[in-house]
Please model this.
Amino acid sequence: MATAAFGSAAFLVLVPGGAAVLVPWALTDGRRAGQWWLPVRLAGLLPPAAGAAVSLEAFTRFAPQGLGTPAPVAPPARLVVSGPYRHLRNPIYVAVVGVLCGQGLLLARPVLFAYAAGTWALTWAFVRWYEEPGLVRRLGADYERYRRAVPAWVPRPTPWQDA
Model:
């Protein structure tokens, strides 16, 4: 489990961290561009805070429950269906896009909305054509049952409970 925990932490820093911190910084130099209305910009604080909390919560479940990592090179051996995964199949991906949109508001930088849209499109394609077929092969009926009950991109209002 220690190896899975280290792998999950490394993946968190490199992939979502890079996508949500390094790339936006490179696109904007971390500076505000426009003079958007202050309440709109301040609303941009909420998605990054929520996205960081959801991502951390989701990542902490992979090593102890899934016996693996979220990284495709060391996937979980068991299906993780607790915490945010009871509401949404892809909470980390949704959280990263939310962080990007929040940064777009906060910094008044439309380029970050374009980057968020591109990130979501690439993520959708990755999930649809690589990740989900792999989960079906590795986890079979358990994943199929979960996939039918829990949406991929819009959270279900009540947590799913496997019967």
Observations:
- The chain has a mean pLDDT of 91.
- The helical segments are 2-14, 16-28, 38-43, 46-59, 62-66, 91-107, 110-139, 141-149.
- Residues 110-139 form the longest helix (30 residues).
- The two ends are 27 Å apart (CA to CA).
